[in-house]
Amino acid sequence: MLPQLRHGMIVRGQRLRQDIARARAEQRWLRDEYRLARAERPRCVARLADLVARFNGVTLYPNSIERAGHSHSLAGVRATVVDQPAAPGHTRMVTVLITGPGWQWSVPTAALTARRAHRFAALVNSHASADTATAARPATSTGQFRALRQLHTSGILTEEEFTTALRRLAHTT
């Protein structure tokens, strides 16, 4: 009985030390990310309203997206979150993949910011779909309904975004 108790305490102590080391590593990583974000804060933003969101070095504007000095229009842009399973004893990594016509960005992040990654990807997708919808807006309401249906079937608009856009279109006509 005593050796089993001793062994259990040793195992729990090892797990606790691993958890503490993992938490300290994540804390260092988040501190470094915070300092990097402060250093990379865009200086060219005229008004705060021009900036929609920032996430790990990627800046989202109402009509464009920017990373490390490279800027792209939101037309045809799609963001997805990839959650990679962690090996035992390692931190789970979450990656935001942002793809556009002819380019792709991979933005790795810690598992602690997975919720923020999902929110940022949703923001990118909503602004990209709004940019695409306003860029190719037909003159008639029938043409607008067709354009929305085409965006929805191609996967650019989610079901929720599609129904919201239909409601807006119904109120404007």
Helix coverage percent: 40-55%
- Mean pLDDT, to the nearest integer, reads 78
Instruction: Please report the distance between the alpha carbons of the first and last residues.
Output: 79 Å
Percent in strands? 15-25%
Quickly count the helices.
Answer: 4
Please report the total strand number as a whole number: 7
In angstroms, what is the radius of gyration? 22 Å
Question: Major sheet: order of its strands?
Answer: 1-2-3-4
Any low-confidence stretches, pLDDT <50, length ≥5? none
Count of the domains:
2
Query: What would you call the shape?
Result: elongated
The biggest beta sheet reads: 4 strands, antiparallel
Can you characterise this structure?
This protein is an alpha+beta fold and 173 residues long. It has two domains: 1-39; 42-135, no CATH class. It is built from four helices and seven strands. The chain has helices spanning 2-39, 114-135, 141-154, 159-172, and strands spanning 53-55, 58-60, 64-67, 70-73, 78-84, 93-100, 103-110. The strands form two sheets. Strands 1-2-3-4 form a four-stranded antiparallel beta sheet, with helices on one face. The radius of gyration is 22 Å and the shape is elongated. 13% of the residues are buried.
Features:
4 helices; 173 residues; alpha+beta; three-stranded antiparallel β-sheet; 2 domains; 7 strands; 21% strand; 51% helix
